Amino acid sequence: MSAWDRPRTRSTVRPAVGTCVPGRPYRRAMAEGRSAVESEETLTEEQRQTERVYLALRTVEGVPSTAPYRLLPPLIAQGWVVASDGRLKCTPEGGYD
């Protein structure tokens, strides 16, 4: 079962405000034998599908432009998503460089 098929998402511990060392809280938790999971939530099927689309949009491949994603028109209107070679992909403004 892939992470996308699981009904939960997890957030790992974050650095304290004002620190500049990403990963240090995670490494400290692991070294101390503690869980690095900061929070967890159960996602609905619709939320999981939305997360899949948002992740795929930020990849080089994007998502098929023929797919009926109802959440995309506002992103396209904002200029955050563009069609390219039959695929929809994020622009740099939309989260992909």
What does this molecule look like?
- By secondary structure, this protein is of the alpha+beta class.
- The chain has two domains: 1-42, no CATH class; 44-97, no CATH class.
- The protein contains three helices and five strands.
- It has helices at residues 24-31, 45-57, 72-77; strands at 8-12, 37-42, 63-64, 81-84, 87-90.
- Strands 3-5-4 form a three-stranded antiparallel β-sheet. Strands 1-2 form a two-stranded antiparallel sheet.
- The radius of gyration is 17 Å and the shape is elongated.
- The model has no long low-confidence stretch (mean pLDDT 76).
List the helices and strands and how they pair.
Elements: E1 8-12, H1 24-31, E2 37-42, H2 45-57, E3 63-64, H3 72-77, E4 81-84, E5 87-90
Antiparallel strand pairs: 1-2, 3-5, 4-5
Overall 3D form: elongated
- pLDDT averaged residue by residue: 76
Q: What Rg do the Cα atoms give?
A: 17 Å
Count of distinct structural domains? 2
The main β sheet shows up as:
3 strands, antiparallel
Uncertain runs with pLDDT below 50, 5 residues or more? none
- Considering DSSP H and I runs of 4 or more, what fraction of the residues is helical? 25-40%
End-to-end span in angstroms? 30 Å
Q: Which sequence of SSEs, written as H and E, runs from N to C?
A: EHEHEHEE
Individual helix count: 3
Largest beta sheet: strand ordering: 3-5-4
Measured by DSSP, the beta-strand proportion falls in 15-25%
Structural class: alpha+beta
- Count of distinct strands: 5
